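Anyone? Bumping this.
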Amino acid sequence: MPRSRPDPVQVVKQRRDAALSALVHGVPYIQFLGIEFDRRGDELTAILPYDDKLIGNPMIPAIHGGVTAGFLETTAVIGLAWASLWDDIEAGRFDMEELTRGHLPRLPKTIDFTVDYLRSGLPRDAYARARVTRSGRRYASVQVEAWQDQRDQPFAQATGHFVMPARDE
Amino acid sequence: MQGDKSKFAEQFINLIPHCQALGMKLTGIGEGVAEMELPYSEQIVGDPETGVVHGGAVSALMDTCCGAAAMSHPSSPSGTATIDLRIDYMRAATPGQAIRTRAECYHITRSVAFVRATALDDDPNQPVATATGAFTVERR
């Protein structure tokens, strides 16, 4: 059987970016915090642009611990959803029409989430990446790290457990 | 308790920009216990299909309330910062309902305050989430 030609690069990129954008921009809370995602291949970096409304302690000033937790949790959930949808996106099985109509794929549900606050979050942009350490049919474990100016000096790290959405088969 | 300290904590919390952005309110404080409320709003929805609030907003509420409880403990000289906070999500909060939380600083040493909290919506028998955390005890 002849091998089919791979899709042109623009088609591949458009498909990946559309799927990611739908995941991220469909959630009001992610918009409220202003989180965006940068994509290189399948690698995602979450970006939290600084905003005055993210401040927790106006005296220092420092980013609110709840914002840091929400940022890390968002990075974990989107990272996990992205990893589990990747094969479908690549195979073109992902239903783009459903997406554009605003029907998002079911997102993983957080069971528990633990944040370590390593240093105070400065009034600057923050970045985060998630690593899925276990991905089963029903449960998943994810680690996340967030940093600001220096990649090797994270200001927070987190670990969380999630229930995966049921796959209709 | 020391009325001045409660007053200070209340003013401090009401001035936090992120809490203002979420419309969060302190409803009680004193002797290592704090109570806060987060009104429901569209901007903090995490699941647009159901309207359920995002865990991050619940985290912000729990973190603030736990910090307030730590600060209000009679053995705490002043401010505090979160060392770690674990949140267990028991169930989705009912869309449209405010989330209320009560945090208690159940143990404090010279350097660490141990705090736990429970979050409820209108159903008082089934918690939405619980939290446990460690907070710094700032020296004066």
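Late reply, but here is one note on the structure posted above: Chain B touches chain A through 36 residues (CB under 8 Å).
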